[in-house]
């Protein structure tokens, strides 16, 4: 069940919230756990037991690791076996099984982070199965993150604060608008270009489509993360921030410190640093980056284009490490041009799993389209339809827009404006029956 | 009150949507009856209603008919149109025609009416000499109500446009968007009403009732609505409207479908629309299906 499903927004969420509110703080982890299980059962009943299995394994394995701390080798064995188990299940569902259990990529990483933090001694074990279950299954972050660490969310009692309700609601509405008003409309542009066939896209349209897709992906994912953070806030806890203006970056490495930050942090903490990070000389560092980026690619999807995407990012990031970074940070304009060419190109690789399509799209961008069925002036038809979504995306990303919002935050007029935005979003969403497929009319 | 001061937005959102939900529930069997499907929330009835220009201040309990009429005030005229065709001299009724090969110039005085597939034809085929009254998302239920025709720079309904401009050939192609609405029979009824309406407005035109183009194999296999079984049922209804005198049924699937009756995979990326470079397969097919009356 997506957050933008009206059944989620107007049935599950209010019902859950009222029940959560009725119970006193010390029972709220129970309500959260139960609610999260209901949430996943509605979306994916068949694999709900898998989530419960993951929680159980994490719970007992953490106890074992902690109790065996005196016998380092045994404790290590349990830890390694648990991590292998989680990874093997994830790999199985990604590459072998035809079905992907809902949220598995995210909750696997949540479980691994918990176990690793226990093993590394960063946190003490959670003695309550319910509390651990509430953390791992917590529905706002269950299917798309942010990947919260246990230390971010640990609490026995969950209080609700009026200020949090207010802030959470504002964040939720902003996220909803990002997703519904900007991302979902730009998604139609990408769909249109796909329908036309990438080999027929005139160069200008091929670029427009690449920028459209880049923007769509950002507003979709950032919007979704904000909605999760907003719901979390309303329930009384702080989920970590997932994006920090990635397109203000001046290098690809910086971009990925600002993009899907909780995943980046995860890879850094639980893969890159354990591999040795950058402490073992430059060739070792480059190798570690290679491993991290290939795994990052694989995590995003099972098709080969994701591995290629990870590999291409590795090439840029390695080049930056080896000296390109110094040049980029000396020349502002150069770094901007670099980001605004490299990022859309890498997103093209991310966007299409079919190699022929990928090559067609890239060659339409950099050379001539291989087919001439589409007249070049069609670019203007598309600009006319989509300029306002590009403009909206650009405006809300400007620093001065954020400053204004921050200033007006407490004002009634700003709140009424947000209410209007929410009404507009729901108006836009109504009639889709919760299925994004139906969004597209033929 | 103190709480409202601390979190006015939160309370407002809750209150506003609670009111909307109540309106939806009250109107469920009334004005919103056509939106009240199980998987929809009462909130969405109200918003969907608003999209269809049904507002809460219309009488909540009053009931509207489920299927929108093609053009309500004209029902009486439609029957008269049918009867006027019935009363044509017998000679004109009897003469039938066969398809012949034609060239691009055949479409100089042709009009294409349809949904996104026709929009694609207008954008990516080389039949730029033809006229197109088409829009994305059109269906047999809406196509005569929406202002999708442009005459002398002005947008108007197809009715209005057809009373102003004359066409020798009219290609009519809808059916995919309404696959989820009604049954093959109810679709067939609406379709033949639409054809009658066109006949009435352009009595001299040759009308081509185009089959619904099949969907691709992947979509066909997984979708309970957008599959070729449903499409074939409805194509049979479309075919019934043909008399081979003024109305001719043409089935582009002869050129576009694979041996299993699915839209050929190479022609489409989404299983619904042709890729730009394959519109010529469709236009070449159309050129084999010309009707020339002397």
What does this protein look like?
The complex is a heterodimer of chains A (442) and B (294). Chain A has 20 helices and no strands. Chain A is mostly helical. Chain A has 2 domains: 6-159, no CATH class; 164-439, no CATH class. Chain A is globular, with a radius of gyration of 23 Å. The two termini of chain A are 25 Å apart. Mean pLDDT of chain A is 91; it is low at 433-440. Chain B is elongated. Chain B has helices at 2-6, 8-26, 42-51, 75-86, 90-94, 116-124, 158-164, 184-201, 217-222, 228-240, 253-256, 279-288; strands spanning 110-114, 131-134, 149-151, 154-156, 169-173, 206-210, 247-250. Chain B folds into 2 domains: 11-66, no CATH class; 72-288, SGNH hydrolase (Rossmann fold). In chain B, strands 2-1-5-6-7 form a 5-stranded parallel β-sheet, with helices on both faces. In chain B, strands 3-4 form a two-stranded antiparallel sheet. Chain B has 294 residues and is an alpha/beta fold. Chain B starts with a helix and ends in a 6-residue tail after the last helix. At the A-B interface, helix 1, helix 9 and helix 19 of A face helix 2, helix 3 and helix 6 of B.
Task: Give the percentage of residues in beta strands of chain A.
Answer: under 5%
Average pLDDT taken over every residue of chain B: 85
- Note the total helix count of chain A: 20
N-C termini distance of chain B: 83 Å
CATH class of the largest domain in chain B: Alpha Beta
SSE run of chain A: HHHHHHHHHHHHHHHHHHHH
Classify the fold: give the CATH topology of the largest domain in chain B: Rossmann fold
Q: Which CATH architecture of the largest domain in chain B? A: 3-Layer(aba) Sandwich
Structural domain count of chain A: 2
């Amino acid at each position: 069940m997506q957050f933008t499903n009206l059944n989620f927004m107007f049935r599950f969420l209010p019902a859950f919230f009222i029940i959560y509110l009725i119970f006193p703080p010390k029972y709220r982890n129970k309500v959260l756990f139960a609610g999260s299980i209901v949430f996943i059962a509605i979306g994916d009943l068949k694999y709900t037991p898998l989530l419960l299995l993951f929680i159980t394994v994490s719970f007992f394995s953490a106890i074992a690791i902690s109790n065996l701390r005196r016998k380092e080798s045994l404790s290590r064995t349990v830890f390694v076996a648990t991590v292998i188990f989680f990874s093997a299940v994830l790999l199985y569902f990604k590459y072998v099984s035809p079905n992907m259990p809902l949220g598995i990529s995210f909750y696997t990483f949540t479980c691994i982070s918990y176990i690793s933090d226990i093993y590394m001694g960063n946190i003490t074990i959670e003695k309550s199965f319910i509390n651990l279950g509430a953390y791992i299954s917590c529905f706002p972050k269950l299917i798309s993150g942010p990947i919260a660490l246990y230390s971010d969310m640990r609490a026995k009692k969950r209080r609700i604060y009026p200020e949090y309700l207010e802030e959470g609601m504002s964040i939720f509405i902003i996220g909803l608008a990002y997703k519904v008003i900007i991302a979902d409309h730009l998604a139609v542009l990408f769909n249109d270009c796909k329908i036309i066939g990438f080999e027929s896209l005139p160069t200008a349209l091929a670029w427009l489509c690449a920028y459209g897709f880049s923007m769509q992906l950002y507003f979709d994912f950032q919007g979704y993360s904000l909605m999760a953070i907003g719901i979390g806030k309303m329930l009384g806890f702080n989920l970590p921030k997932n994006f920090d203006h990635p397109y203000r970056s001046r290098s690809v490495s910086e971009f990925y410190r600002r993009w899907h930050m909780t995943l980046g942090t995860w890879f850094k903490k639980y893969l890159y640093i354990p591999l040795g990070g950058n402490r073992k000389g430059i060739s070792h560092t480059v190798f570690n980056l290679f491993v991290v980026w290939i795994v990052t690619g694989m995590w995003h999807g099972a098709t080969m284009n994701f591995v290629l995407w990870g590999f291409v990012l590795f090439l840029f990031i390695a080049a930056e490490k080896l000296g390109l970074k110094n040049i980029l940070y000396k020349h502002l304009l150069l770094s901007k041009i670099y980001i605004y060419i490299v990022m859309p190109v890498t997103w093209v690789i991310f966007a299409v799993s079919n190699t022929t399509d990928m090559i067609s799209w890239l060659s339409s961008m950099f050379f001539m389209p291989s087919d001439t069925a589409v007249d070049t002036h069609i670019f203007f038809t598309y600009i006319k339809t989509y300029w306002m979504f590009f403009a909206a995306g650009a405006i809300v990303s400007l620093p001065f827009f954020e400053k204004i919002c921050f200033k007006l935050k407490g004002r009634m007029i700003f709140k009424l404006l947000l209410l209007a935005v929410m009404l507009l979003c729901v108006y836009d969403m109504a009639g889709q029956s919760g299925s994004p497929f139906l969004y597209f009319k033929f | 009150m103190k709480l409202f001061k601390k979190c006015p937005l939160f309370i407002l959102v809750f209150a506003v949507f609670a009111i909307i939900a109540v309106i939806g529930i009250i109107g469920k069997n009334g004005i919103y009856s056509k939106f009240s499907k199980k998987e929809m929330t009462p909130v969405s009835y109200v918003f969907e209603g608003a999209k269809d220009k049904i507002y809460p201040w219309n009488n909540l309990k009053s009931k509207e008919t489920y299927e929108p009429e093609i053009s309500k005030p004209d029902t009486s005229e439609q029957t008269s149109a049918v009867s006027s065709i019935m009363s044509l001299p017998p000679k004109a009724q009897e003469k039938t025609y066969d398809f012949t090969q034609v060239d691009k110039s055949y479409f100089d005085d042709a009009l294409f009416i349809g949904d996104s597939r026709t929009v694609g034809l207008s954008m990516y085929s080389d039949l730029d000499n033809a006229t197109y009254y088409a829009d994305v998302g059109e269906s047999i239920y809406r196509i005569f109500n929406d202002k999708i025709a442009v005459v002398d720079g002005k947008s108007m309904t197809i009715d209005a446009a057809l009373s102003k401009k004359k066409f020798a050939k009219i290609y009519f192609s809808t059916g995919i968007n309404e696959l989820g609405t009604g049954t093959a029979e109810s679709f067939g009824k609406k379709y033949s009403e639409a054809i009658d309406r066109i006949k009435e407005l352009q009595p001299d035109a040759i009308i081509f009732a185009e089959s619904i183009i099949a969907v691709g194999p992947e979509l066909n296999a997984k979708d309970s609505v957008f599959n070729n079984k449903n499409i074939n049922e409805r194509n049979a209804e479309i075919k019934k409207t043909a008399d081979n005198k003024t109305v001719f049924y043409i089935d582009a699937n002869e050129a576009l479908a694979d041996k299993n009756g699915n839209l050929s995979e190479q022609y489409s990326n989404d299983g619904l629309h042709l890729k730009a470079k394959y519109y010529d397969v469709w236009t070449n097919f159309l050129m084999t299906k010309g009707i020339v009356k002397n």
